[in-house]
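Morning, I've got a small favour to ask if you have a moment. It would help a lot if you went through both lines with me. I owe you a coffee for this, so here goes:
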Amino acid sequence: MVNKERQEYLTLLIINQSQSPVGSGYLSREFKNYGLDVSEATAGRILAQMDSLNYTNRIGYQGRTLTSKGTERLKELEEKKIRSDQGQEFFRALESRTKDELIDILVARRAIEREIARLAASNATEDEIKGLWHIQRMQKERVAHVRGGAAEQDVAFHRIVAKASRNKVLEGAMELIRQDGQLAPVLEFIRKEVHSVVSLDHAKIVTAIEKRDPDLAEKAMVDHLENIIRDVKRYWDLVEGN
């Protein structure tokens, strides 16, 4: 959050948390708990501004309470703060990754998921195939309307394929790799940056499974993971300016 918005957010938060109307002296002291050095005179001006925006209601000389509009504004700023915090956490996770680390993970997935795909072509139920098509259509629609896939949907797709293999060891190996909750969002971000569309690869995988063709399913899965490896390499080329 920018400084002005943070000041506004903290002002509304402090008033909302107080059991009694908040005056400039109290607000000034509470700001210090959040690392802000704000004089009582400045706090008074901030409260006057909140009055002018109809976020606060002045109770004589006692201080301010929040209006319904102020409560709505506080909720809006809280949601924005959460999104901002999550975004910063994500980019820290992205910056902590190396190209080689991501490629090593994807190579391991390629080795495991090629066999998973083969087995899924033989063992998938009709309901599982319908579930895969449902996710693939959702991804395709999302790309068309909001220019991006969904990390959760990608995880769900590969999880169904793994379950359909009917091999608990391979399924467990995939779950172990996916324990890192930031991996899917990082890969999704990279695909967006290089304009890659995962739903097309997923359609080929489901088609092969639906045809009950293990060789075709294996090829579709390998091609899919090699495409992601290529995307990772392309992304790092862009970042490094090569």
